[in-house]
Design goal:
CATH architecture of the largest domain: 3-Layer(aba) Sandwich
CATH topology of the largest domain: Rossmann fold
CATH superfamily of the largest domain: SGNH hydrolase
Distance between the termini: 72 Å
Strand content: 25-35%
Largest sheet: 12 strands, mixed
Length: about 675
C-alpha cells in the first residue's frame, strides 16, 4: 500500500526539541477490519521483520478484558486485554522465511491484519549523526542506490521524538520499508551497508530499526533507572520527573540551578550576571555582527575556530501599551544550545534551529528591556544568526518590535567549563531519547544492536566507560540478557598530531575498546583509518559495514575469526625496551608505508609524560624504545590523538586500533613495590 508521511511526522523531523505527548501516537501501515481503532502496536505493520528462532512478543490495545487470537504461519496464540486495554502475547519461534500475514481477531468481531511480514534477523542501529548519515551522502552513492533493490532487507527509521516519560508507541508516520532505490537514499548508511554485507554469510531477511539522533550524547539514550544505578544523576532526574508534572515549576528550578552554576565559575566576580538588568556592565561587551552568520565567520581571529559559550544581549525600549501585552520573543537561528532571559526572567532553552519563546504579560515593562542569551556551541556554525527580520518581539496585538540590530556579545572563557545540561533537552538531557525512541520498541525481538556514538561525549571521556556499560546493560534488560552489541569506535577527525598530547577523542576510544573487550557478547569496529580529518562524518560507510559484519560474525553468529583486527594483550619491560604482545592476529603484523610502524608512545604515570617511541615488528610483537629511563615507563599508548596517523595492520588488512596499556610489573618490581 502507499504510505505518506503525516503532518505529525513532518513536524517531528523538523523539531529541535521534540517533546511528545503520550496520547498523540496512532497506528499506520496496517489494515483494521470492522473497527476504527487498530489492535496491534504500530511496530507491527506491513513489511515488518520478526526475529527468527525467537519467541517474539507481540502486543497492542483492545477493549478492556477482551479476548484476542493472534495467528501467523499456521500458529495461533491467545491473549486477554488488561484493565487498561493493553494486551500482549508471545508467538512461537519461527524459522527464517515469509512473507506471512499476522492477524489479530477479537471476540467482539474486531480484527486487524498486516501483510508481507518476514522472519529473519532484526538489528537495532542507534547513536548520533554518523548513524543517521544517509546512503545518499556516502561514497559512490548513485551506483549504490541504483543497485539497492533487495526485498529481504526491511528498514524502519524511528522519527526524532524526545519525552520526559517513556512512550508506548513510535510516531504515527514511521513505516517499515523495503530496500529499493526509492527508499534507500535517506536510510542510515551504516545500518544498510552492514546488513547488506552480513547477508553474504547470513542469508536471511534482515530487519533494521534505526533509532538515532544527530548530535546526541549517550546520557539521553539511557533509562532513568540505568542512570540512577550509575549514580550522580538523582537531582537532575528528579527535576526531569518534576518537568513531566509541572513544566513551569521545573523551569524555575532549572533557572536557579543554572544561575548557581554560573556564579560558582572560577573567575566570575560577584555581581557578574549578564541576564540581570540591575547588574549590567559595559566591560567586555563588543558589537555582535549577526548579519555575518555564525561567530566563526565574523572575521574575529580568536573566534575563527572557537567552540564554547558566548553571551549575547540587546536592550529594547517599549511604550507602556507595548509592555502591557503578552508577546513572543523570536530569536531566529540559534546553534547549538541557548539559555534565554528577558529582564532577568528565564524564558526558555532550546537546541538547534529557530527559537521562539512565549512571554506572558508582566515579563516586559515600560522603558528599557534586557534580552540576554547564552549560547553554547561545540562543533561549527555556532551562535545567534539568521536574517535580521527573524529577530523580533511579536506582540499580542499583532505588531512587532524589531531586534535585528544593536546586539552585543561577550566571550565566556574556556576555563569556565561546560554548563549543566537541561534534563529534558532532547539530545543532551537525561533519558529523553530512551523514553521517546527506545521505550516504544517494547521488548521487540532483536538479534543484536549496533551503537555508533561518542563524538558528543569527548569533552567528558573519563565518564564514558561507565555510561556505555550502563547502556549495554540497559538494552539487555529490555531485549535479552546476551544481546550482542557492536560498538563503532569513533573515527579520526581533526589535525594530525606533531607531538604527544592528551586527547578526549582518544580517551573515549579507549573506553569503547575496554567495554568491548570485557564482554564476550560485544565487539568493536575500528575506524581509525577510514575517517576524514576535515569531516566528522566520513563517507566510506561501506567499509564500516564490512567491519561491522565481520564483528557480528564472531559475536552473534559464532564464527571463529578475529572480530576487529589485532588487539593488544600485554606490555612488559625487556631491558631498555618495552615489548607489546598482540592477539587476534591474522598472519603477521605489517607496517604500511615504511619499515617500522609509527604512532607509539611510551609514558610515565603522570599526564604529559609521553614520548614518541621507535617501533620494530617481531612476529606478533612490537618492540618499543624511547628517550626516557626504562624505570620511568609506566604506560604504552598507540594512536593517541584526535586524528592519529596509524600504520600497523595484519594480514587481514584490518588496522590495530588506538589503545593505552599499563606495563606488567616483573616479579622483581612487585617485590620492590608491593
Amino acid at each position: 500500500m502507499t504510505v505518506r508521511p503525516t503532518p505529525l511526522s513532518q513536524r517531528l523531523r523538523r523539531a529541535g526539541l521534540a517533546l511528545v505527548a503520550l496520547c498523540c501516537l496512532g497506528v499506520v501501515g496496517a489494515r483494521a477490519d470492522g473497527a476504527d481503532a487498530a489492535l496491534l502496536n504500530p511496530l507491527f505493520q506491513d513489511h515488518a521483520v520478526l526475529q527468527r528462532d525467537h519467541a517474539n512478543p507481540v502486543w497492542g490495545h483492545a477493549r478492556p478484558g477482551e479476548t484476542l487470537a493472534i495467528a501467523i504461519a499456521g500458529h495461533s496464540v491467545q491473549a486477554r486485554a488488561g484493565a487498561d486495554g493493553r494486551w500482549e502475547a508471545t508467538l512461537p519461534p519461527l524459522s527464517a522465511g515469509g512473507p506471512y500475514t499476522l492477524k489479530v481477531a477479537a471476540a467482539d468481531g474486531m480484527s486487524q491484519s498486516v501483510g508481507d511480514v518476514m522472519v529473519g534477523d532484526v538489528w537495532l542501529c542507534s547513536g548520533q549523526s554518523n548513524m543517521v548519515l544517509p546512503v545518499k551522502h556516502t561514497l559512490n552513492a548513485w551506483a549504490e542506490i541504483q543497485d539497492a533493490a533487495n526485498d529481504r532487507i526491511r528498514m524502519l527509521t524511528v522519527d526524532n521524538a524526545a519525552s520526559p516519560v517513556p512512550l508506548d508507541a513510535i510516531p504515527a508516520g514511521d513505516h517499515w520499508l523495503k530496500a529499493t532505490p526509492a527508499n534507500v537514499p535517506d536510510f542510515s548508511a551504516a545500518c544498510y551497508y552492514y546488513a547488506r554485507e552480513l547477508q553474504r554469510t547470513a542469508s536471511v531477511p534482515m530487519g533494521l530499526i534505526v533509532s538515532a539522533w544527530n548530535g546526541s550524547r549517550i546520557e539521553p539514550w539511557l533509562s532513568a533507572q540505568a542512570l540512577r544505578r550509575i549514580g550522580g544523576y538523582d537531582e537532575a532526574l528528579d527535576l526531569l520527573a518534576l518537568y513531566a508534572r509541572d513544566r513551569a515549576q521545573a523551569g524555575e528550578r532549572w533557572d536557579r540551578q543554572w544561575q548557581a552554576w554560573w556564579r560558582a565559575r572560577p573567575g566570575v566576580v560577584a555581581g557578574d550576571e549578564p541576564w540581570n538588568p540591575a547588574r549590567t556592565s559595559r566591560d567586555g561587551w563588543l558589537p555582535a555582527p549577526l548579519g555575518k552568520g555564525p561567530w566563526q565567520q565574523w572575521g574575529v581571529p580568536s573566534l575563527a575556530d572557537f567552540t564554547g559559550m558566548l553571551w549575547y544581549r540587546i536592550t529594547v525600549r517599549l511604550s507602556a501599551r507595548q509592555a502591557a501585552q503578552a508577546a513572543t520573543l523570536s530569536l531566529g537561528t540559534v546553534n547549538e544550545t541557548d539559555q534565554t532571559w528577558v529582564n532577568g526572567r528565564w524564558v526558555g532553552t532550546g537546541y538547534g534551529g529557530e527559537r521562539s519563546y512565549a512571554l506572558p504579560a508582566g515579563v516586559l515593562h515600560e522603558g528599557d528591556n534586557l534580552v540576554a542569551v547564552n549560547v553554547l556551541g561545540t562543533y561549527r556554525g555556532d551562535g545567534l544568526y539568521g536574517p535580521a527580520d527573524q529577530r523580533a518581539l511579536r506582540l499580542a496585538d499583532g505588531s512587532s518590535v524589531p531586534l535585528g540590530e544593536g546586539w552585543q556579545y561577550r566571550v565566556v572563557p574556556k576555563s569556565y567549563g561546560s554548563p549543566p545540561s537541561l534534563p529534558w533537552q532532547s539530545t543532551s538531557g537525561l533519558s529523553t531519547l530512551h523514553n521517546g525512541m527506545i521505550a516504544p520498541l517494547g521488548a521487540y525481538g532483536l538479534r543484536g544492536a549496533v551503537w555508533y556514538q561518542g563524538e558528543s561525549n569527548t569533552g567528558d571521556a573519563g565518564h564514558y566507560r561507565v555510561l556505555l556499560e550502563g547502556l549495554r546493560d540497559d538494552l539487555r534488560a529490555r531485549f535479552g540478557a546476551t544481546l550482542p552489541m557492536l560498538i563503532v569506535q569513533i573515527a579520526n577527525y581533526g589535525a594530525p598530531p606533531v607531538h604527544p598530547m592528551e586527547s578526549g577523542s582518544a580517551a573515549l576510544r579507549e573506553a569503547q575498546r575496554e567495554v568491548a573487550a570485557e564482554d564476550a557478547h560485544s565487539a568493536l569496529a575500528v575506524t581509525i583509518d577510514i575517517g576524514e580529518r576535515g569531516d566528522i562524518h566520513p563517507a566510506n560507510k561501506q567499509e564500516l559495514g564490512r567491519r561491522l559484519a565481520r564483528a557480528a560474525r564472531r559475536v552473534a553468529y559464532g564464527e571463529s575469526l578475529p572480530p576487529s583486527g589485532p588487539v593488544p594483550v600485554s606490555a612488559r619491560r625487556d631491558g631498555d625496551a618495552v615489548v607489546l604482545d598482540f592477539g587476534e592476529v591474522t598472519g603477521e603484523l605489517v607496517a604500511y608505508g615504511a619499515n617500522h610502524p609509527i604512532g607509539f608512545e611510551l609514558c610515565g604515570a603522570q599526564p604529559d609524560s609521553c614520548h614518541y617511541a621507535s617501533a620494530d615488528i617481531r612476529g606478533r610483537q612490537v618492540v618499543l624504545r624511547a628517550p626516557m629511563a626504562p624505570s620511568a615507563i609506566a604506560r604504552v599508548r598507540y594512536g593517541w590523538a584526535d586524528s592519529p596517523v596509524c600504520t600497523l595492520y595484519d594480514g587481514s588488512g584490518l588496522p590495530v586500533g588506538p589503545f593505552e596499556l599499563s606495563l606488567i610489573s616483573t616479579p622483581a618490581e612487585q617485590e620492590r613495590h608491593p
